Amino acid sequence: MDIRDIEELTEQTLAELAGAADLGAVEALRVKTIGRNGRLPELMKGLKDVPAADKPAMGQALNSFKTAVTAAVNERKAALEAASKSAQADAFDLSLPGRWPRRGRLHPIQQLIDRTSGIFRRMGFTVADGPDVETEYYNFDALNTPADHVSRDLADTFYLPGGLLLRTQTSAVQARYMESHPPPVRIVCPGRCYRRDTTDATHSANFHQIEGLYVDEKVSLADLKGDIDHFARELMGPGVKSRFRTHFFPFTEPSVEVDFSCHMCAGQGCRVCKQSGWIEIMGAGMVDPHVFQMAGYDPEAVTGYAFGMGIERLAMILFGIDDIRRLYENDVRYLAQF
Ligand code: DAH
Which pTM was predicted? Predict the structure, then answer.
């Protein structure tokens, strides 16, 4: 082995390293050449047989071999590692879950409008509509409401110039509809209402109601009870019942307030129903003959029932919303859960 052989060995090793395909191949070459039992220690051992004059040059050649191979090993390892890292970064990981576009949803108030009117539509009702800016006549007079009734108070109703007001109840649609449609009538009217209420956890100056009106020959209180019971089951669940408590409304006679048995505790008493087992849901009754008369219907020929309920209240009961203001703050993070 002379200096030329060592130079050749260096060149050959460097060429092989440059072509090494992976880290394992580089390591194998390192072990074979400069490793503890590799070619270099073997050649070092042979140094003692080299003539004294050639020893320094030979020693230097072996040192150069070691330095060159060590550098080439490190360089090749670094290059292979870098290449594998960038391959990983570019890789498309099929096991990752996809990214879905965020889906919007209907506001809880709209959901309840759709659900309640959907139930009545399936019972043969159609959806009717009236203006938010109403006349005093349709909002009060046509509903048999005396001129001195409390609900007409300036403190309760938003009056506008020219005998107009912001309707305080969807009941205002009743007379409008009857004036332009002969019986039979079967309508629900969802919509916005306005009252001069101070906003708190259960009151909002702007809220929604859904009104119902069914007029035909021989409509009875039993029809009202049966239809409301069906509605209660459809909306709240199969075990839910309704009960009537006598009440007074100017436009119905008799008038009732309707409670549903609590859907949370099945009437046992819980936080939602304030331990009573019942939840107040709506006002209802048999349409007063005088209301028919004013609308141009013959009270001897037809009878009918009417009802009205608050949409926000339904949403709060069904979704467990504790404060009506949450429905109007429009914080999407809050509303998205419903
Ligand atoms: N308009 C009533 C209110 O806002 C609710 C109501 C009660 C509507 C009885 C009706 C009814 O149609 O018959 O409190």
Answer: 0.73
* Model pLDDT for residues 16-62, shown as the tens digit of each residue: 888 889 999 999 999 999 999 988 888 888 888 888 888 888 888 88
Q: Ligand 1: which of 251, 255, 303, 314 to mutate, judged by most atoms within 8 Å of the beta carbon?
A: 251
304 lines ligand 1 (CB under 6 A): no
Closest among 205, 238, 203, 208 to 116, alpha carbons compared: 208
CA-CA-CA-CA dihedral for 153, 150, 193, 210, to nearest 10: -170
Q: Whose CA is nearest to atom 4 of ligand 1?
A: 169
> How many other β-carbons are positioned within 10 Å of the β-carbon of residue 166?
20
Please state the φ and ψ torsions of residue 181, each to the nearest 5 degrees.
Answer: -135, 125
Tokens matching residue 34:
């400069």
CA distances from 150 to 145, 157, 196, 250, 326 (A): 9, 10, 13, 11, 29
249 lines ligand 1 (CB under 6 A): yes
